[in-house]
Write a structure and sequence with these properties.
Distance between the termini: 76 Å
Number of helices: 28
Strand order of the largest sheet: 1-5-7-8-9-10-11
Number of strands: 21
Shape: globular
């Protein structure tokens, strides 16, 4: 170990890496487009790192004591771990250099694929809206110690006078997150490769020490899941792994973090931390926002191991109750009998950079908020109060208390009419008629063929669309001119879909900047940011809105656009809404009442919009819930309570629809096997699901469950620029038909097409339609069609 067992008084677990002006996004996309070479990309990344370090020092962290984390991934932190371990699937073997490393071009190939080679699968990072690239591990996967990019960063920053703390996904979590590589034996568990992975991690620790790292942060949020209790029990795998790593000669000191909940056995809070301490780890982190406070027994067992207390919320934007947090820290320090470090509960990658960048928020709101920069200051203030006493931070404590009191009293936080409506709900409001009756009425109304084709909703948001939106905001074009532009864009999208031969059309959503923000801007109780960008995956960013008060819908807002689009075609066209759970998941939601209550408020606002769409003659309404799985608690014991209120919120939004109105929903990028009963409980007439990257794994789960309503497993992966061939899509359709009857199946992409370009979109959809026509001519489908006609 290269340093004494000391740790800074304040730290954060990570910081937004995309840049306050999305500098990294722009550089990476310029590199992909060929407008920037590798040296230019590295220069842009270095400049952003330097500005980040300087900003964190300005906010109160020390550039020389390892309080600043080095978590500067170009795309994804899990992909960084895969690259640092050289743990590439066999199909990418040609990307591996002689020393086991992968270069920048290869790194992005893993993320985006090339030619007929599919990229690594994307899925949700725990219960957040961040997506990571899933490692693929098999019995023959090679592990190496090739963290060249990270060691170069540490060395470069050391030369600039900054001693940073490198961050890596820990070995246990890395393998828990992995899937078995194609061709692995049935039932293969990637965690069986832990010894080889640990040997590679030990080599990485040695190389980081040589580069000048004094501390290394290993993130082990996998311990907050169901397997955490077993793995982190005394004498279990976690203890064995970390005893091995602690024994690495010349290594840096280790901080092991456990964000996103309570690590280990939830009935024994803090035991996992004590196990890590027993293994010799120098510092352990506890999430004290979503997780439980360690027991007194566990705290005593830490001994000389430093407790890093995550009392500043890394996942939401509300201002910290500094008095309350300081009291928690004082209690912990008294019980441990040694200094405690103040920290964030998770990395700050889940929140925007700086409230001060916002100029258009409602006047009352900024004082209630803390984005990443404000959270760094909160950690620093709390550390100073802990070290020097409350009088040293009296002004900060008073200011925070006044802001919290102002928020609690403000008009709009509680609206009597909204509370009366939710309080008067009866069971009838959550229930539609029988699915079989609805299906018959809808088929008679719509007259759709077997294997109907559609898309998920959005079409490419071109530079022209974005420019028009910017122009109306700046006043350079009038609202009338902007609306005429949107009508023409919608007309073009409708004509394109008709020309491609799609069966159910969409209007393309050119009027929507974001599928949640658009609704937030039309609902009371929300506020939208200007610069509140948060990384979703890779270079993709979202701007979560802020849900601060009771929610209602002043007037219909999707109806005019959907009605105009439907007037242009005889084919059915979907009304497009975002569901209540997704609106909550992709917003920063008030923390002063249960989520279920807030979800019902949003659901009633959506119910009103559906009623107006029906009145306008719209026959199909899609209520997207891509985040349904995302909010699922990490412990299975907590699943049912969440699923109860989330499913009921969806049903509250949709149950007012008539039998002849076909309700669709869409789910994406999650492990759906865990929530099939909830998907069934939504009672949607048609559900489209992301499935292309997983090669339609979900259809077997659906068939085994006995799912009986319409289902559209995605056959075109829109998160990659690849154009799937007609043959590739046909193979996926055949996979679906082998598991489910044709009369249940819809054919569609994985997700909306907003982020794609028109050339690739048109080619891909043309192949999708052609593959569907071929499938309709197959003996299996013809036989089913004939049987359906006889009935």
């Amino acid at each position: 170990m290269s340093t004494e067992n000391t740790f800074p008084a304040a730290t954060i677990l990570g910081y937004p890496r995309i840049g306050p002006g999305r500098e990294l996004k722009k550089a990476v996309e310029a590199y992909w487009a060929g407008r920037l070479d590798e040296a230019g990309l590295q220069s842009a990344a270095d400049q952003l790192q330097d500005r980040t370090v300087a900003r964190l020092v300005e906010l109160g962290l020390d550039r020389g004591d390892s309080s600043i984390p080095a978590d500067f991934a170009l795309y994804d932190q899990v992909l960084d771990a895969t690259a640092a371990l050289g743990a590439l699937p066999a199909r990418f073997a040609d990307l591996v250099n002689e020393d086991g490393s992968v270069d920048t071009a290869g790194y992005f190939t893993l993320a985006r694929g090339d030619g007929d080679r599919a990229p690594l699968e994307l899925t949700k990072w725990f219960d957040t809206n961040y997506h990571f690239l899933v490692p693929e591990i098999g019995p023959g996967t090679t592990f190496a110690s090739v963290a060249h990019r990270l060691t170069a960063t540490i060395r470069r920053q050391r030369e600039r006078g900054a001693v940073l703390r490198p961050v890596l996904v820990g070995p246990v979590t890395y393998l828990l997150l992995a899937k078995a590589e194609d061709g692995a034996p049935a039932g293969f568990d990637p965690l069986t490769r832990i010894n080889d992975a640990v040997a590679a991690y030990a080599g990485i620790l040695a190389s980081l020490a040589e580069a000048g790292a004094e501390w290394v942060q290993l993130d082990e949020p996998g311990l907050v899941g169901d397997r955490g209790g077993e793995l982190a029990a005394p004498g279990g795998l976690v203890e064995r792994v970390y005893r091995q790593l602690v024994g690495t000669p010349g290594r840096p000191a280790l901080l092991v973090t456990t964000g996103y909940g309570t690590a280990g056995d939830p009935g024994k809070p803090g035991q996992a931390l004590a196990v890590l301490a027993a293994a010799g780890v120098e510092a352990v982190h506890a999430d004290l926002v979503r997780g439980s406070r360690p027991s007194a027994e566990a705290l005593q067992a830490l001994g000389s191991t430093r407790l890093v207390a995550g009392v500043v919320d890394g996942r939401n934007v509300w201002r910290n109750d500094l008095r309350l947090s300081l009291g928690v820290l004082e209690d912990l320090q008294e019980q441990t009998g040694t200094a405690v470090t103040t920290a964030t509960s998770t990395s700050l990658q889940h929140v925007p950079h700086d409230v001060q960048a916002e100029t258009a928020l409602p006047e009352h709101l900024p004082a209630w908020l803390a984005f990443a920069d404000q959270k760094v200051r909160e950690a620093v203030v709390l550390a100073r109060g802990l070290a020097e006493g409350r009088p040293a931070v009296a002004a900060e404590l008073q200011n925070a208390e006044e802001a919290l009191n102002h928020r609690a009293r403000f008009d709009g936080v509680v609206v009597d009419s909204v509370r009366t409506r939710t309080g008067g709900l009866t069971e009838e409001a959550f229930t539609r008629g029988p699915a079989e009756r609805r299906a018959a009425v809808q088929q008679e109304r719509l007259g759709l063929p077997l294997l109907p084709t559609t898309t998920i909703g959005s079409f490419p948001q071109t530079g022209e669309v974005r420019s028009a939106r910017a122009a109306v905001r700046s006043g350079s074009i009038s609202h009338a001119e902007y609306e005429q532009f949107l009508r023409q864009e919608i007309a073009n999208v409708v004509r394109l879909q008709e020309g491609l031969g799609l069966d159910v059309l969409v209007h393309g959503e050119p009027e929507r900047n974001d599928m949640v923000q658009y609704f937030a801007e039309n609902f009371d109780g929300f506020a939208a940011t200007e610069q509140g960008w948060v990384q979703s995956y890779g270079s993709r960013c979202t701007r979560p809105s802020i849900l601060w008060g009771d929610v209602s819908r002043p007037q219909a807002f999707t109806v005019p656009w959907i009605s105009f689009a439907q007037s242009l075609t005889e084919r059915p066209l979907k009304g497009m809404l975002t569901g209540p759970v997704t609106i909550l998941a992709w917003s920063f939601v008030r923390d002063d009442q249960p989520l279920g209550e807030t979800a019902n408020q949003v659901a009633l606002a959506l119910r009103d919009e559906i009623a107006d769409l029906e009145a306008a003659g719209i026959a199909i309404v899609q209520v997207d819930e891509p985040a349904l799985r995302e909010l699922l608690p990490l412990r299975s014991a907590d699943h049912q309570a969440y699923l109860d209120w989330s499913v009921r919120a969806f049903r509250l939004a949709t149950a007012g629809a008539a039998d002849g109105t076909q309700i669709h929903t869409h789910l994406c990028y999650s492990e759906f096997g865990e929530v099939i009963s909830a998907i069934d409980g939504l009672d949607a007439d048609v559900t489209s699901i992301e499935a292309a990257r997983s090669r339609l794994e979900v259809v077997a789960d659906l068939a085994g469950f006995g799912y009986s309503r319409g289902i559209g497993p995605g056959v075109y992966d829109i998160h990659s620029p690849r154009v799937p061939s007609e043959q590739e899509i046909a193979g996926l359709i055949d996979t679906a038909l082998a598991a489910l009857p044709a009369q249940q199946l819809w054919i569609n992409p994985d997700c909306g097409l907003k982020t794609r370009g028109y050339d690739e979109t048109v080619l891909s959809l043309r192949n999708l339609v052609a593959a569907t026509r071929t499938a309709r001519e197959s003996a299996r489908v013809l036989k089913e069609e004939q049987a359906l006609a006889r009935t």
